[in-house]
């Protein structure tokens, strides 16, 4: 029984993938679960594994080429099996998206070599072998994942509303404690369907805590005034009616803390950014009204703080997540932030490491930027942009003195956060930065 | 197992029931001397005589009414309509007399009658003679409606229809009379109100009835070659309808295509879709798609008639669409 190798959705938002390198050659025997190729998604380089046993008969997609999710990239079959019908039914590889690397496209042969042998029609369903031999296998029950590429999925939370989904998908997601907002729909108009839930459930271990486990959040129904604010302000600045709050904090004591820790030994060394992350996380734990997601018909306030940390990478930006950042010690947080940043730059983050944040921080201080505004990562309702730590003349008790200062600006989704709400939160952030013992307490 | 035609299966059913119960008789246009317009009653005049195989004038309303009267006084008539297109003239007797008599008489008169004949389109009989009437008939409380698509079902359902104490509509098909299939030599009955699973698969359900079962099975065969496994449910009875069978298949596959010969608006498929949404809302992974005749009077021109009728390619396309394989 032949198994199609298709471009799989290896990240929640992946629409296409570039095949970086084939690990297996045509003719190699492969077992289910073995790595076939490395694929660059929109976020990272991931492994594409075999979904069936057999011989890698054909590498349809060439190295360096790009294919949309769902497209045939190879065929696994028995050594003597006729795979002509599979190859002839596959759409040609997307040569434009390959960015010039598509010269020797080993795409589909123009005609199948021979008609399928009577009595052994070549099934195209990926799961056919699994389903035939082990009905209890956790494989998706439909051949859907091997089907032709779905139309381009739209981002979830379009219009800020809840994602479209089939009733079955909603039930399965609810049974499995999965937040539909984190699942990319592959059906018409981005509808989340059964195969998307199954892909999301089987994509990687559930090792990372997700902010959506039961009890981790409180859903707050929208009051009329909340609804009116959301509607009116979205008309004005949409789809996320954002406003900005800027505050300056004095880092004298933070600098002293840092100095003292550095003197205590290398293992205690932390950066200003680490302390700022910790301060924001600690403040978020006290302000669930800010640590919240806009879900269209309600606001989800999280009881846990999963802090997204924007990291610049060679050709873009990614936001790995410091899970439970408020509960981690400063040293642990510092180490984790360093590790995640390194992994991000090496493009080795797994989807679990860059999804699930409840709030985010972006820092351009190292570039000498005084202050800036960051763009909210929906459905989060806020992001803090941190500028450079600089020595400035300031007036203290009537005297002009030189102090270390930092400016931070919070972008707020006005549907969730009002000016005063955001201001109270920022006051807490400043208090902690100015009295850093509050965060190590 | 003997392989016989749909026509012969009906003939066996009629003869067996008339042999079994001498209150049973058949009446209609050309059923006797001519041996049946479609030869379903072949040999019966010779076997049972003209008191029990009754030729009528071309008076559908008249002989349908005679049948209802005969049933009221204890006989068990089988009324053959040359086609259900002609039975339109007799609907007053079917709907207002046969279907209502038990109710209107306060339970005094049951009407054990069968109205049978070919339903739906054949080939190039044009708009007035190519109509599928099942949604009209299944609409009426007091009637039972069955639509067998195979010789086996035709025999088993017709025998049950004759033995039922209510008016039963049996919808046959001109294009079905020559089709062949396995029919056991020994006696069997198929209960009214029960659907049959004609093909098992777990990817998608096709729910259909009547001659469209043949289309559904051909579509299932072709889809199987592409690795798509389809559950094919033959409703067999349209009133009462087997809601459990519909719910069972949709809960298994999460996707359904409802195929029928008739028109879309207020068609049988509309009722099936309603049962699905009512019973299986949380099991659906895709909207249900219906395949049916295009919403026009049936054209005479061969190419246009083909375009108007539901067929195998349309059914396959619908299955792929509900499986999100084609947008």
Features:
heterodimer, A: about 450 residues, alpha+beta, OB fold (Dihydrolipoamide Acetyltransferase, E2P), Dihydrolipoamide Transferase, Chloramphenicol Acetyltransferase, 3 domains, 4-stranded antiparallel β-sheet, 20 strands, about 25% helix, globular, B: about 325 residues, alpha/beta, Rossmann fold, 2 domains, 7-stranded mixed β-sheet, 13 helices, 14 strands, about 40% helix
Structural class based on helices, strands and sheet pairing of chain B: alpha/beta
Please identify the structural class of chain A as seen in this structure: alpha+beta
For the record, give the distance between the C-alpha atoms at the N and C termini of chain B, rounded to a whole number.
44 Å
Q: How would you write the strand order of the largest sheet of chain B?
A: 3-2-4-5-7-6-12
Biggest interface pair, counts: A-B, 26 and 19 residues
Please, could you describe this protein's structure?
The complex is a heterodimer of chains A (441) and B (327). With 441 residues, chain A is an alpha+beta fold. Chain A folds into three domains: 3-115 and 122-140, OB fold (Dihydrolipoamide Acetyltransferase, E2P); 158-202, Dihydrolipoamide Transferase, CATH 4.10.320.10; 217-440, Chloramphenicol acetyltransferase-like domain (Chloramphenicol Acetyltransferase), CATH 3.30.559.10. Chain A has helices at residues 84-89, 128-133, 167-175, 194-202, 224-236, 252-264, 272-286, 330-345, 351-354, 419-434, 437-440; strands at residues 3-6, 16-22, 29-30, 35-40, 45-49, 54-59, 66-68, 72-77, 217-221, 242-250, 292-294, 298-302, 307-309, 311-313, 316-318, 321-322, 359-363, 382-386, 390-396, 399-413. In chain A, the strands form five sheets. In chain A, strands 10, 13, 16, 17, 18, 19 and 20 form a seven-stranded mixed sheet that branches. Chain A has a four-stranded antiparallel sheet with strand order 1-8-6-3, with no helix packed on it. In chain A, helix 3 (167-175) runs parallel beside helix 4. The longest helix of chain A has 16 residues, at 330-345. With 327 residues, chain B is α/β, with parallel strands linked by helices. Chain B folds into two domains: 3-182, 3-Layer(aba) Sandwich (Rossmann fold); 196-322, Rossmann fold, CATH 3.40.50.920. Chain B has 13 helices and 14 strands. Chain B has helices at residues 6-20, 44-48, 60-72, 84-87, 91-98, 101-104, 134-138, 151-163, 212-225, 243-253, 268-280, 302-308, 312-322, and strands spanning 3-5, 24-28, 53-55, 76-80, 114-118, 144-146, 168-172, 180-182, 196-199, 204-208, 230-234, 237-239, 256-259, 289-291. In chain B, strands 3-2-4-5-7-6-12 form a seven-stranded mixed sheet, with helices on both faces. In chain B, strands 9-11-10-13-14 form a five-stranded mixed sheet, sandwiched between helices. Classes of the chains: A alpha+beta (441), B alpha/beta (327). The A-B interface holds A 121, 123-125, 128, 131, 141-144, 147-148, 150-151, 166-171, 186-188, 193-195 and B 202-203, 224-228, 254, 281-286, 323-327.
């Amino acid at each position: 029984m032949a198994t199609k190798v298709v471009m799989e959705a290896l990240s929640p938002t992946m629409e296409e993938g570039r095949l970086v390198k084939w690990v297996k050659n045509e003719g190699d025997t492969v077992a289910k679960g073995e790595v076939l190729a490395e694929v660059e998604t929109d976020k990272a380089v991931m492994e594409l594994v075999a979904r069936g046993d057999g011989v890698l008969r054909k590498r349809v997609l060439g190295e360096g080429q790009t294919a949309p999710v769902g497209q045939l990239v190879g065929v696994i079959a028995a050594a003597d099996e006729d795979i002509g019908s599979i190859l002839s039914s596959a759409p040609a590889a997307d040569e434009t998206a390959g960015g010039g690397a598509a010269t020797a496209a080993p795409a589909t042969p123009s005609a199948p070599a021979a008609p399928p042998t009577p009595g052994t029609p070549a099934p195209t369903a990926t799961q056919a072998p699994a389903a035939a031999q082990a009905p209890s296998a956790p494989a998706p029950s439909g051949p859907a994942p091997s089907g032709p590429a779905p139309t381009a999925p739209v981002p979830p939370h379009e219009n800020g509303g809840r994602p479209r989904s089939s009733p079955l998908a909603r039930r399965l997601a609810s049974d499995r404690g999965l937040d539909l907002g984190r699942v990319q729909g592959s059906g018409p108009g981005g509808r989340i369907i059964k195969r998307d839930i199954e892909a999301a459930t089987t994509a990687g271990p559930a090792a990372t805590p997700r902010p959506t486990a039961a009890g981790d959040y409180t859903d707050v129904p929208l009051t009329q005034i909340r609804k009116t604010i959301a509607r009116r302000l979205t008309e004005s600045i949409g789809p996320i009616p954002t406003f900005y709050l800027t505050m300056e904090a004095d880092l004298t004591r933070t600098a002293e803390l840092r100095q003292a820790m550095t003197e205590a030994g290398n293992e205690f060394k932390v950066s200003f950014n680490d302390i700022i992350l910790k301060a924001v996380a600690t403040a978020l734990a006290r302000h669930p009204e800010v640590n919240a997601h806009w879900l269209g018909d309600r606001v989800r306030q999280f009881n846990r703080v999963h802090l997204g940390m924007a990291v610049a990478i060679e050709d873009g930006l990614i936001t790995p997540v410091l899970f439970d950042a408020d509960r981690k010690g400063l040293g642990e947080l510092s180490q984790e932030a360093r590790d995640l940043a390194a992994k991000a730059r090496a493009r080795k983050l797994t989807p679990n490491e860059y999804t699930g944040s409840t709030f985010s921080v972006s820092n351009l201080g190292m570039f000498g930027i005084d202050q800036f505004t960051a763009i909210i990562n929906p459905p989060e309702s806020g992001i803090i942009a941190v500028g450079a730590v600089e020595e400035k003349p300031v007036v203290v008790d009537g005297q002009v003195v030189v102090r270390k200062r930092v400016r931070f600006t919070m972008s707020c989704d006005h549907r969730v956060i009002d000016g005063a709400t955001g201001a109270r939160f920022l006051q807490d952030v400043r208090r902690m930065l100015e009295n850093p013992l509050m965060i190590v307490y | 197992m003997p392989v016989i035609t749909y026509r012969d299966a009906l003939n066996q059913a009629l003869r067996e029931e008339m042999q079994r119960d001498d209150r049973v008789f058949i009446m209609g246009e050309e059923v006797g001397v001519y041996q049946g317009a479609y030869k379903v009653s072949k040999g019966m005049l010779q076997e049972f005589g003209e008191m029990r195989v009754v030729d009528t004038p071309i008076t559908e309303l008249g002989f349908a009414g005679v049948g209802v009267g005969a049933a009221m006084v204890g006989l068990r008539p089988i009324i053959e309509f040359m086609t259900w297109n002609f039975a339109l003239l007799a609907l007053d007797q079917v709907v207002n007399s046969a279907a209502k008599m038990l109710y209107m008489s306060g339970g005094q008169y049951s009407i054990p009658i069968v109205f049978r004949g070919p339903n739906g389109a054949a080939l190039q009989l044009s708009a007035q003679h190519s109509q599928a009437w099942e949604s009209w008939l299944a609409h009426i409380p007091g009637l039972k409606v069955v639509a067998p698509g195979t010789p086996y079902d035709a025999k088993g359902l017709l025998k049950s229809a004759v033995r039922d104490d209510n008016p039963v509509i049996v919808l046959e098909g001109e294009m079905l009379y020559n089709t062949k299939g396995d029919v056991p030599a020994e006696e069997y009955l198929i209960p009214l109100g029960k659907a049959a699973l004609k093909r098992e698969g777990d990817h998608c359900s096709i729910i259909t009835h009547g001659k469209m079962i043949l289309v559904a099975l051909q579509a299932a065969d072709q889809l199987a070659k592409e690795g798509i496994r389809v559950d094919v449910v033959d409703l067999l009875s349209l009133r009462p309808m087997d809601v459990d069978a519909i719910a069972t298949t949709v809960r298994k596959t999460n996707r359904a295509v409802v195929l029928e010969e008739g028109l879309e608006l207020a068609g049988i498929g509309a009722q099936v879709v309603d049962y699905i949404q009512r019973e299986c809302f949380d099991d659906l992974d895709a909207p249900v798609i219906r395949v049916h005749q295009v919403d026009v009077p049936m054209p005479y021109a061969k190419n246009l008639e083909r375009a108007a009728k539901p067929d195998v390619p349309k059914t396959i396309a619908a299955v792929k669409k509900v499986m999100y394989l084609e947008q």
